[in-house]
């Protein structure tokens, strides 16, 4: 890591942790009109979501479109996706540290920031989905009652919290040493980085196990659920980073060579195919066997008994994933195509792993009843609010990371 | 006590309105020839009022056996005999002895399930 | 004519003003957004918030809890109720049998459950769902719980489904806070004051046995069943999961559950599996009983059978 101080950080003030935090606040709140407009928009959307959550808490979750047949919906769908994004964010770390790819170091922070923002969003999606948020303390080990190791949800609480801590530590430490203009001590962050690589795998495996361990839900009760989760996470993580790098280089003076992006695209070329292969395995097993256990897959892709709300979503997701794969593998990568492929992959996996995974687990119900679920306005509002919160964290985090690496710019960064 | 039908009370007028739909049975199979309000078993033994279920049990052995073991016929009370008894439905509380087949009834309202997209079945 | 210095100062002042305006707008917006939460928080009770898990409550605390709930039933529903704590007895393991040959699908059991357990009136909620099935197979995909014609209909049989009180319950496995557990007499119970409403148990149950309180239940005061127990039929709050408790407030005192008493045909049989002379044991030993989804290994305590 470069020991020289970035100019943006050079400012009068204490050269200690409080000074660092104060400087972070300054960097986060200072920007151009575009930045203020963006953050104000996100804040407004966040408030809309917060209000929705307040109304939902007071009047009950009956205000959502969920019911006793489809008892998890939009929130848990997004939770699942965000955990995947958090896991995928750490993919940048592997080339940087395992393969000593020095150019990758610049994007490591981006991966960590993505992981941090995603975990916060995942935890927010859990918070808005529990019926009694006032009883949150019941799940704190030692204070409440913690059904570990039997309940996979308790594993999820542990791995997500530790992962957040790991990422906050790594980001914070690297930024802090840069602020101080000192060489970061490898002992204080490299072990954490290696742990976070393994931990990223664990967060998404545990989340998959939440679903795959339920014998009463045959759509989820499959061994390849965890591999599918990981494959799709390692598509979306790099995709978001590639997108972010493009945006950052468009709105700031931050520059990075093509190499990190090429590495990420190479990773995606493999994982996008792996994801499609696992999807195909799942689809074959369901439809070739047929019978009662295939009704959920039937409902998802073709509809059943007149219920077909998810069909357009399912095929859109397949089309997006296939198109993204085709662009990445068969076409010569130009900037626009790469962007399009990344966006397609992000959206395609969001559908596939979110609504395309959670809802069919409940349709048909365990007693083979068919109740459709279409998220209503309240759920969209709260979801949008959490996305806005996540984007705010991500924007600030990206801004801080850029500030860390931009040299001799003074106080006139364009972000 | 839960039940579906009430027992008809015999009277001369009722004779005209009795619908007999009980297999091949005729009146004297159960009613005594000289005292029509008296019931008797197949071998002629007169039955006292509390024993009338034995009459049904002559032919409907499996149901009578199930009844004796709590597996047929409504009941209220206790599962734990040590803490209380059970009140059992008499056969004719549900089965009209002249036309014993249970007639279809209107069920209680079903569950109000919100947000069905369309009707099924 | 303004110099660069004045321009900078003016810009600085505008920036500060703009910042202050933005911050105030933001704060005002935030306060408006969270207003319903403030309302909701006002209704929360500190004792309720701090209450420990049922299994950690000593006698005095439990008595206070019961008194508090009796008071809220009066305050919120206008009903006088008495809530007791009924413990399991030794030597008892409950089981339930259902005779598919004589169930006529009249739904009186579901209705009795609705009344006995103080369910929400608007949704006609019940722990029991009665399925009209096609004769010749046990195929729920051909079944329906929303039939609306005279019963029994020709060519159909009727299958009520409720909590199976499994010996290997998936719901108990997945609850992150141990709000649900299997008691010594076999009944799987929920501590409604401990449940956080995550609905993982509802996802895990293979029998659609669990219900979530999507809203606060609404029951007119004169319809409230005031004979209540902490773990069974007291009026549950919004945001928690609940399920059939085999009417433990009745059955732990030797009485029959409400659904059984309402059944006119006697299709339901209840008793102690550990008592060799019980009616339930006779059925298991003399009828060909089966359980639902046996391959899942849940070991239900609800036994179905046909007479022939």
Structure, described:
The complex is a heterotrimer of chains A (415), B (121) and C (308). Chain A has one domain (3-412): Formate dehydrogenase/DMSO reductase domain (Formate dehydrogenase/DMSO reductase fold). Helices cover 68% and strands 0% of the residues of chain A. Chain A contains 13 helices and no strands. Chain A has helices spanning 17-29, 33-59, 74-89, 93-98, 105-129, 152-180, 186-212, 225-251, 258-289, 295-302, 311-330, 335-358, 377-405. In chain A, helix 5 (105-129) packs across helix 8 (225-251) and helix 6 (152-180) packs antiparallel against helix 7 (186-212). The two termini of chain A are 23 Å apart. The model of chain A is unreliable at 1-5 and 408-415 (pLDDT under 50). The longest helix of chain B is centred in the middle third of the chain and has 8 residues, at 52-59. Chain B has four helices and two strands; from the N terminus they run H-H-H-E-E-H. In chain B, strands 1-2 form a two-stranded antiparallel sheet. With 121 residues, chain B is mostly helical. In chain B, strand 1 and strand 2 form a beta hairpin. The radius of gyration of chain B is 19 Å and the shape is globular. In chain B, helix 2 crosses helix 3. By secondary structure, chain C is an alpha/beta fold. Chain C folds into two domains: 3-83, no CATH class; 84-308, 2-Layer Sandwich (Alpha-Beta Plaits). Helices cover 32% and strands 14% of the residues of chain C. Chain C is built from nine helices and eleven strands. A three-stranded mixed β-sheet of chain C has the order 10-2-11, with helices on one face. Chain C is elongated, with a radius of gyration of 26 Å. The interface between A and C is large, with 59 and 62 residues.
């Amino acid at each position: 890591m470069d020991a020289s101080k970035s100019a943006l950080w050079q400012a009068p003030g204490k050269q200690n942790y409080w000074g660092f935090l104060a400087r972070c606040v300054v960097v986060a709140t200072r920007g151009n009109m575009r930045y203020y407009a963006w953050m104000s928009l996100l804040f407004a959307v966040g408030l809309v979501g917060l209000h929705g959550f307040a109304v939902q808490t007071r009047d009950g979750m009956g205000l959502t479109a969920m019911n006793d047949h489809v008892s998890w919906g939009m929130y848990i769908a997004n939770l699942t996706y965000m955990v995947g994004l958090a896991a995928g964010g750490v993919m940048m770390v592997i080339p940087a540290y395992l393969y000593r790819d020095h150019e990758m170091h610049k994007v490591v922070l981006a991966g960590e920031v993505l992981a941090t923002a995603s975990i916060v969003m995942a935890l927010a999606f859990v918070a808005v989905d529990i019926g009694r948020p006032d009883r949150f303390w019941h799940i704190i080990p030692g204070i409440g009652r913690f059904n570990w190791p039997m309940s996979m949800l308790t594993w999820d609480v542990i791995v997500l919290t530790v992962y957040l801590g790991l990422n906050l530590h790594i980001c914070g430490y690297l930024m802090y040493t840069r602020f101080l203009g000192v060489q970061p001590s490898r002992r204080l962050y490299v072990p954490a980085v290696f742990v976070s690589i393994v931990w990223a795998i664990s967060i998404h495996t545990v989340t998959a196990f939440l679903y795959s361990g339920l014998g009463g839900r045959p759509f989820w009760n499959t061994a390849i659920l965890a591999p599918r989760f990981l494959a799709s996470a390692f598509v979306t993580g790099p995709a978001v980073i590639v997108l972010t790098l493009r945006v950052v280089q468009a709105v700031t003076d931050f520059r990075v060579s093509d190499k990190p992006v090429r590495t990420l695209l190479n990773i995606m070329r493999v994982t996008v195919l792996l994801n499609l292969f696992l999807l195909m395995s799942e689809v074959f097993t369901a439809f070739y066997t047929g019978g009662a256990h295939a009704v959920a897959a039937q409902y998802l892709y073709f509809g059943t008994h007149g219920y077909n709300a998810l069909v357009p979503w399912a095929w859109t997701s397949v089309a997006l994933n296939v198109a993204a794969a085709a662009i990445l593998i068969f076409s010569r990568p130009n900037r626009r195509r790469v962007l399009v492929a990344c966006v397609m992959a992000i959206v395609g996996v969001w559908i596939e792993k979110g609504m395309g995974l959670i809802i069919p687990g409940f349709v048909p119900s365990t007693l083979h009843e068919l109740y459709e679920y279409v998220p209503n306005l309240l759920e969209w509002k709260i979801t949008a609010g959490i996305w806005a919160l996540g984007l705010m964290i991500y924007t600030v985090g990206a801004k801080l990371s850029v500030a860390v690496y931009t040299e001799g710019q003074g106080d006139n960064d364009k972000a | 006590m839960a039940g579906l039908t009430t027992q008809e009370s015999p009277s001369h007028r009722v004779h005209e309105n009795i619908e007999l739909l009980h297999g091949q049975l005729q009146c004297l199979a159960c009613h005594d020839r000289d005292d029509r309000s008296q019931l008797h078993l197949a071998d002629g033994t007169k039955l006292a009022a509390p024993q009338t279920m034995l009459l049904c049990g002559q032919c409907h052995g499996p149901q009578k056996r199930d009844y004796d073991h709590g597996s047929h016929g409504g009941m209220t009370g206790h599962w734990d005999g040590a803490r209380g008894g059970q009140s059992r439905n008499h056969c004719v509380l549900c089965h009209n002895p002249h036309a014993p087949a249970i007639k279809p009834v209107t069920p209680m309202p079903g569950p109000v399930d919100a947000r069905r997209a369309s009707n099924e079945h | 004519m303004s110099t660069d210095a004045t321009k900078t100062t003016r810009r600085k002042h505008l920036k500060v003003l703009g910042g202050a305006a933005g911050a105030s707008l933001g704060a005002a917006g935030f306060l408006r957004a969270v207003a319903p939460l403030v309302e909701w928080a006002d209704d929360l009770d500190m004792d309720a918030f701090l209450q420990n898990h049922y299994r950690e409550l000593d006698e005095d605390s439990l008595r206070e809890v019961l008194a508090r709930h009796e008071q809220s039933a009066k305050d919120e529903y206008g009903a006088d109720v008495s809530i007791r704590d009924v413990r399991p007895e030794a030597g008892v393991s409950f089981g339930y049998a259902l005779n598919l040959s004589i169930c006529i699908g009249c739904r009186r059991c579901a209705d009795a459950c609705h009344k006995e357990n103080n369910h929400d009136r608007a949704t006609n909620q019940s722990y029991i769902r009665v399925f009209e099935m096609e004769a010749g197979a046990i195929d729920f995909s051909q079944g329906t719980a929303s039939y609306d014609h005279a019963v029994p209909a020709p060519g159909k049989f009727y299958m009520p489904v409720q909590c199976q009180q499994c010996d290997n319950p998936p719901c108990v496995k997945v609850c992150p806070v141990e709000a649900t557990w299997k008691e010594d007499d076999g009944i799987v119970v929920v501590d409604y004051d401990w449940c956080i409403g995550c609905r993982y148990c509802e996802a895990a149950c293979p029998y659609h046995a669990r219900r979530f309180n999507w809203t606060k239940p609404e029951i007119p005061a004169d319809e409230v069943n005031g004979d209540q127990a902490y773990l069974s039929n007291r009026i549950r709050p919004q945001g928690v999961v609940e399920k059939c408790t085999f009417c433990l407030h009745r059955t732990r005192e030797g009485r029959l559950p409400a659904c059984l008493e309402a059944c006119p045909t006697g299709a339901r049989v209840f008793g102690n599996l550990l008592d060799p002379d019980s009616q339930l044991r006779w059925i298991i030993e003399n009828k060909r009983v089966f359980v639902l989804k046996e391959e899942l290994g849940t070991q239900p305590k609800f036994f179905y059978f046909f007479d022939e």
